[in-house]
Amino acid sequence: MSQPATPIEAAADALLRIVVTGERERSAAVNPDWQKGRPWTDTLAPAATDALDVAGLAADPIGTACRAELRRIGHALRAANPSEDFTALEVEIAEMDPTHAGWRAIVLEMAWHGIGGPTP
Question: Between the CA of residue 14 and those of 8, 24, 70, what are the distances in Å?
């Protein structure tokens, strides 16, 4: 990263750390053949929307709350920087932790689905 993270980017980073840790733990529990160094590339979770995910809260309250906050952060980042390349920002934030950048990119892509894209 070329410049220090803004407070809101740092908040996104902190939330990503929580979500990715949970995803990795669930992945390992569901798939005992999964190896620690292997990247996570598959998810059954749908892309996020702005609606309350009641089923997600029942199944994974912490991860779901973190994803909802990531979504709010995505909206705030977009509103603060409407001309910025949102995809580049996703990559920049995902790579704040290069060890889990692949997992983080997937989580951000799902959490920020539709933010910064073409307007209908």
Answer: 10, 16, 10
